[in-house]
Amino acid sequence: MKRLWIILLSLTCFKTFSQDTLKLALTDVEAIFLKNNALLLAQKYNIEASKAQIIQARLWDNPTFSGEQQIYNQETRTPLPLGNMGQRAFQIQQLFLLAGKRNKQIELAKINTEASEYNYYDLLRTLAIELRTNFYDTYFIIKSVAMYDEEILTFQKLLVAYEEQYGKGNIPLKEVIRLKAFLFSLKKEQNELRQQIIEKQSTLRTLLNTKETLFIAPKIDEKVLDSLGINDLTLAQLTATAFENRYDLKMQDASVRYEKENLLLQKAMATPDLRLGYSYDRNGSFIPNYHAITLQIDIPVFNKNQGNIKTSSFRIEAAQKTLEQAQTSLQNDVLSAFMKVQENNRLAQSIDSKFIRSFDTLIEGAVASYQKRNISLIEFVDFVESYKTSVVELNALKSDRMRSIEELNFVVGKKVL
User: Fold this and answer.
1) Cβ distance 262 to 112 under 8 Å?
2) Which has the closest alpha carbon to 211: 414, 397, 1, 32?
3) Is residue 133 a contact partner of residue 406, using CB atoms and an 8 Å limit?
4) What is the pLDDT of residue 354?
5) pLDDT digits (tens, 9 = 90+) for 106-117
6) What is the pTM of this model?
7) Is the Cα dihedral 38, 41, 45, 46 positive or negative?
8) Residue 245's closest CA among 121, 381, 359?
9) Member of which family (predicted)?
10) What angle do CA 201, 206, 210 make, to 5 degrees?
């Protein structure tokens, strides 16, 4: 009965925030997130743009055409002479990239596309932890708000009864004032929690790209959360999984491969490209109707692309060092996240599940004892304060436990819990 009362209070809490309350499980929220999130959709377009660059890299350069036509024949005094006495010439050329430049440019475009895909999944990883932590935080804060609703309602009823008794001269004014002060304190603390919910709802709506009037009420089975197999995980297993699934690490590896391929391209750029063509001249050459093959190539005497080759070599070294740093950081992140999960889980398991239920029963007895004057106001308020603090801290602990679990999922790059 007590649990049902808290659930009803929670639903009432939802209505105070918004007209449109949507009760969703995490799987439902994640499905909406994948479908609607604007940043993810934008990154998908970036992937398609990168794929288009592969198409562009495969294209040959267009041939070059040039021509000339005599506009006036001075001997015959004929404008635009198009007959045998007129002069016209044209030339067409095609650029041929030598030393495999075209294939190397295609390979660079492919690596860029690969990096864009990695960037999408890393963005998904980053946004997903924000989504899940705000989802769990909202759920546990709402539970605390519901507890405050219960206490505020109890004290409001007590205050009405005690104001009536004060009017009859049965109790001193200081008790009424003390009750009012404690009631105000409860409302203020509850308001602070409500402000947190408002902020987290704003974040959830932004991530889900939904309308501003929607209130997302998390639907969670706490028994499932409590049964997560944290003790089955090992550090070695998690580290190996992270190296396999961290897309930011894959992006850095792609950066190393990109710089290596770019070095090959820069070395190839030292080889001049060839322009091969055909030329025709009707009357301007040493014979009429002159036909010729044209050939054009730079002579690599001064510029052999030395600077760009050296730059690419240094960029490879820089990319490799950055990759090494990322690998070290990953290992430390996994270790830190794993230790946090273990500590939070150990603390959560050390709390007797009957603790709060016992408090629920005792608080009802405390109210009755105070009304019968069996305990003083100070004792009663102190007991209620202890109850309130215990509930809020327990919910915060459960929220911290889920936050640490999601942080572990984040650093591993895969949902392991």
Assistant:
1) no
2) 32
3) yes
4) 66
5) 999 999 999 999
6) 0.88
7) positive
8) 121
9) Belongs to the outer membrane factor (OMF) (TC 1.B.17) family.
10) 90
| Closest to 407 measured CA to CA, from 342, 349, 347, 348 | 342
Listed residue (345, 351, 354, 360) closest to 146, CA to CA:
360
Average pLDDT, the chain: 91
Read off the pLDDT of residues 305-353 as tens digits, 9 standing for 90 and up: 999 999 999 999 999 999 999 999 999 999 999 999 999 999 988 886 6
| % of the chain exceeding 90 in pLDDT | 72
Q: How far apart are CA 179 and CA 244, in angstroms?
A: 59
Which residues does 307 contact at the CB level (< 8 Å), separation at least 6?
Answer: none
Q: How many helices (H) and strands (E) does the chain have?
A: 11, 8
| Interatomic CA distance for residues 381 and 113, integer angstroms | 64
Pairing between β-strand 274-281 and β-strand 290-297 as defined by DSSP bridges: antiparallel
H or E element at residue 367: helix 354-371
Nearest alpha carbon to residue 159 among 179, 138, 139: 179
Band of residue 7 on the pLDDT scale cut at 50, 70, 90? very low
On whether the CB atoms of residues 91 and 277 are closer than 8 A, the answer is yes
Does domain 2-61+97-270+305-412 fall under CATH 3.40.50.300? My reply is: no
114-140 b/e (C-beta count within 10 Å ≥ 16 → b): bbbbbbbbbbbbebbbbbbbbbbbbbb
Cβ contacts of 259 within 8 Å, gap of 6 or more: 312, 315, 316, 318, 319
The backbone torsions φ and ψ at residue 119, rounded to the nearest 5 degrees and listed phi first, read -65, -35
| Rounded-to-integer distance, Cα 306 and Cα 96, Å | 22
115 near 251, Cβ under 8 Å? yes
* Average pLDDT of the segment spanning 92-101: 97
Q: H or E element: which one contains 67?
A: strand 64-69
Domain boundaries, the chain: 2-61+97-270+305-412, 62-96+274-304
DSSP lists the bridge partners of residue 93 as 64, 277
CA-wise closest residue to 410 among 123, 115, 27, 31 = 123
